Amino acid sequence: MNILYDVSERVATITLNRPEVANAQNAELLDELDAAWTRASDDPGVSVIILRGEGKHFSAGHDLKSGRANQGPITLERVYAGEARRYLEYSLRWRNIPKPSIAAVQGRCIAGGLLLCWPCDLIVAADDAKFSDPVVMMGIGGVEYHGHTWELGPRKAKEILFTGRPVTAEEAEKTGMVNLVVPRDELDQRTMELARTIASKPAFGLRQAKRAVNQTLDVQGFYAAIQSVFDIHQTGHGHALSVGGYPILTNLDEMKATIK
What we know:
The chain has 10 helices and 9 strands. By secondary structure, it is of the alpha/beta class.
């Protein structure tokens, strides 16, 4: 199973379960993950949702090999449609689920991994967590759900994109991207404690508080920016196709090196 699901004390825990590939995201994992989010959202016995990853790393991002295998000729139309569904619509839907959500992040959270944790309302990071988006080396200006500016601020976002270097848990906490940094061996416990505290509050009040903050961001332009920058992301794919090569596997070994 790509996804594990459990409910305890009004807290649903969704676990990415591909530790052998650092929880890299193939289509099956993302579809199962979306179904798990929907299940938790629809369950009146769930007040808070935790997203976590099994194993050493939260997520190494998109599974670049299996994600492109056996799909026939690559065209911009097909790439756009597939990414719009799984990388943009899913993330926006998870962001707007009317229940508080917490991502528990350990190890590496690379590129597509950000599409999983950034839609969550809170992030608890282990002290070994590192966040990065190195896709500029593939000729693309940033991962599909472009929350960088909102999560890091404009200058830090540019630095991280231009250099591809990872952001440590402590640095992410300083920018406000991470709520809490804890020892690695306490990550699950501390995340659950936070979830239980939130779950003890009135569900309608939590829903309204989340809606208020998200709508404030949307009025400031968050939703429109995410949609428009997705099209900028697609021009990277279009450029690659126009010069005769789709570079999704180019520099794969260099990108893998960021996991170690």
